[in-house]
Amino acid sequence: MTDAEALIALNMLPKIGPVRIRRLVAYFDSAAAVMTAGVDSLRKVEGIGPDTAGMLSRWEDFVDLSGELALAREMNVGIVTQLDEVYPDNLREIHDPPVVLYVQGKLERRDKIAVGVVGSRRATTYGLTTARKLSFQLAYAGVTVLSGLARGIDTAAHEGAVAAKGRTIGVIGSGLARLYPPENAALAERIADGHGAVVSEFPLRTEPDKQTFPQRNRIVSGWSSGILVVEAPAWSGSLITANNAADQGRSVYAVPGPIDKASSLGCNKLIQNGARLVLEASDILEDLNMLLPPVREEKVGNSAAADAVRADLTPGEQTVWDALGDDERQLDEIISETGLPASEVTTALMRLEIRRRVKQSAGRRYLRIT
Prior knowledge:
This protein has three domains: 1-63, DNA polymerase, domain 1 (Orthogonal Bundle), CATH 1.10.150; 103-291, Rossmann fold (3-Layer(aba) Sandwich), CATH 3.40.50.450; 303-368, Winged helix-like DNA-binding domain superfamily/Winged helix DNA-binding domain (Arc Repressor Mutant, subunit A, Orthogonal Bundle). 45% of the residues lie in helices and 13% in strands. It contains 18 helices and twelve strands. It has a nine-stranded mixed β-sheet with strand order 1-2-6-5-4-3-7-8-9, with helices on both faces. Strands 10-12-11 form a three-stranded antiparallel β-sheet. Helix 11 crosses helix 12 (238-247). The longest helix is centred in the middle third of the chain and has 16 residues, at 125-140. The chain is elongated. The model is unreliable at 293-301 (pLDDT under 50).
């Protein structure tokens, strides 16, 4: 048995959890060694009582490992463990990182820069529209959008990222063979088919319940560089995700809403308690820029340098880049110069800013840089 197979088997055992699995692997130096240990040795590990030790020593009575691996192959599901390089770095930092991740689609290194977008399942038109818009802008700028593939805000967030032809990760609270909610099956397929991945830490046939969703939420917050709450009442589970994010050292963002609407009370309270108020994606991108490698900021003074930058841009970005010139220009001037719609110009500027090709200063003035 390989260490990866052992981790999959350990993850399938009931009522052990990531923290105790980590202790077991540390004590025996490898996951494979845990699976062959005797009861007396197992009981020496902190938190492992007689019942758990007995279950571990007879793990094959509780786990059909070969059946799980066969079903994963049949469903074209990859299984990523903490031993794999593609396992998200941010997740390794939390107290109870998932032991394995079942993945439909593909994880990429660029998913390291990610924002979790969460909110109410019973979202208003305002909430849905805002979630799609902000997620579109984030994904278009190159940020991976994470959410829970639930109804409401989660669905809108994934839809916005897919529409932008960007990256999005759906972290679900059930096994991938028991996708919930079922009406999002088509969306999940679109995400996995070239737009990101649908991910779960649960064995493939795990049914969703009241415990699996909070467990899922810690992955969304732990994986993300920050959590954006778009719309949430005071009792929303999204506030738990935001609190997880704060505890995990992540940034918390919130979209304000009408003070007389219960659907916005949770977001307004978050802002009142210190969350950053978000009016547009650039409010988040400004923070995320600090996560990107620094570049030398200077005016582009020669055609060779400008040509090198332009070669890496889309046609729309090239038009905006050319309109900037060598001095700071206001947004209205750029729109007028390009003749492009304002929404297209602002989106291009956000993408250029996240890639450190443009610097924004006070008064929405922009300067191109290398």
